[in-house]
Amino acid sequence: MSVARQYPAPSEVKEELLKKYPTKVAKKRSKSIVLNDPDQPKEIQANIRTVPGIITQRGCCYAGCKGVVLGPTRDILNIVHGPIGCSYYAWLTRRNQTKPETAEEANYVPYCFSTDMQEDHVVFGGEKKLTKAIEEAYEIFKPKAIAIHSTCPVGLIGDDVHAVARAMTAKLEDCNVFGFSCEGYKGVSQSAGHHIANNGLFKHVVGKDNTVREGKFRINLLGEYNIGGDSFELERLFEECGITLVSTYSGNSTYLDLMNSHMVDLNLVMCHRSINYIGEMMETKYGVPWLKVNFIGAESTAKSLRKMAEYFGDEELKAKVEEVCERELAKTTAALAASKPKTEGKLAMLFVGGSRAHHYQELFKELGMKTIAAGYEFAHRDDYEGREIIPNIKIDADSKNIEELKIKPDEELYKPRKTAEEIEALKAKGVELGEYKGMMPDMAEHTFVIDDISQYESEKLIEIYKPDVFCAGVKEKYVIQKMGIPLKQLHSYDYGGPYAGFEGAINFYKDIERMVSSRIWKLIDAPWEKAKKEQPELTATYVA
Ligand code: CFM
């Protein structure tokens, strides 16, 4: 028999989270900790600098550019200009998979290319070393494209990676070399790196191949990075539905696909945060509209496929999509029936990145679990509150450092894919183009939405709510597990996945069922609790 759990009033919870902070910090953090009420318009503070001294989950600008957006494309050779640590610690850690079609096809994903900047390069400049590294990489691999990623010292000493890139493109003739000023300190998180990567790809790659590919329904999938094989499952579904996937940004993608990506008729957007810039720019320059989708959760996957079919308006396609959805939903429903009795009524907390803390709530809903608190590490207000608030977002100095490209319609290639009337008709049918409503309206009343949560706040929330599963990343994983709470990594999926699409939903049901059913967690005594009892002389306290 389960006993209904009792919790303090939400206002008391918020007070508890803030109580130990110095007044100024508490005041600042208070604006990022919001008690959600889907019927009340709410404002959350997001995309601002983390308070120094707070243990944040965030990463850096270089991580967002090289690691997130550029990294998954297998045949762009990514050279990191900087000290070796920036490369070494980012080497193969994101689980973005790729599958070359032939054994001869280039795949640089397993490699780690770095200029290995030393002290004398920091003092005397590193451009010569960078030029040499490009020459060497070209000699050995003959890649079609080389991307240069700047780490912190490059910006501090003023190496001009763009000048080096231009010179090398001219010299090598058959290799497109382009640079990114994605120094780690730019902006306030990896979000700045996404924007810089989007700009660079749009300037140097998109639009270079105007071939019209075969296929009646051509799309791109934006903001899907093939973590744990997610893109493979989605590719399977598109193929079965008769959809031509020209490119994915950037899971399992190739340079050539990205060059041709502006020739499609629709962009589907998975992760709005990391790629909305390319969606917007492609629409302005070429007239390709974008549609926000979510392929996390069986029902959301079916809904997203149906919306896509509605967009094309083709009866045969709609019938095919219906057939695929019905067949797959029968399988997910059966899997859910097996897992749900063990997951129903359990509590989840999700603190991840800039889109998954929203998307994964769908899977937990299917499992009958409640998301009691959720938040992003580095999202912007629109990812929480919806795109309509974009004009009200205050642009601060940190965001002003990131270039906004001025895009105009292409004189030859701009062609709106739908008329204004067609767009309105689609909207009436629930297919709203260029729109994202964000996380908050989808969350229940009396739940918490917290931006850039700190380790301290996470621990407090866990003490109060004792969730059945906490979703975050590897930096949080082991401390939280030592507290006796299972942690599911929603960045790397631990060793699991895929979790996208129908097959992915089944994998997730099973993994979560196993995690929340295990009794081992209750037996854990956190080492610091044990130390308090057994060796009090080893425990430390904070002195203000
Ligand atoms: Fe988008 Fe991502 Fe995410 Fe992201 Fe990321 Fe990631 Fe993520 Mo880790 S692009 S915002 S910068 S969905 S690497 S595949 S899991 S934080 S929620």
TrEMBL record:
Nucleotide-binding: present as a keyword of the record? yes
Q: Which reaction does it catalyse?
A: N2 + 8 reduced [2Fe-2S]-[ferredoxin] + 16 ATP + 16 H2O = H2 + 8 oxidized [2Fe-2S]-[ferredoxin] + 2 NH4(+) + 16 ADP + 16 phosphate + 6 H(+)
**Keywords, sorted A to Z:** ATP-binding, Iron, Iron-sulfur, Metal-binding, Molybdenum, Nitrogen fixation, Nucleotide-binding, Oxidoreductase
Outline the extent of the Nitrogenase/oxidoreductase component domain. 60-514
Q: Name one GO molecular function term.
A: ATP binding
Q: Which Pfam families match?
A: Oxidored_nitro
Stated EC number for the protein is: 1.18.6.1
Q: Which cofactor does it need?
A: [7Fe-Mo-9S-C-homocitryl] cluster; [8Fe-7S] cluster
Q: Name one GO cellular component term.
A: molybdenum-iron nitrogenase complex
Q: How does it assemble?
A: Tetramer of two alpha and two beta chains. Forms complex with the iron protein (nitrogenase component 2).
Described function: This molybdenum-iron protein is part of the nitrogenase complex that catalyzes the key enzymatic reactions in nitrogen fixation.
Family from the record: Belongs to the NifD/NifK/NifE/NifN family.
Protein name (Swiss-Prot/TrEMBL): Nitrogenase protein alpha chain
- What species is this protein from? Chloroherpeton thalassium (strain ATCC 35110 / GB-78)
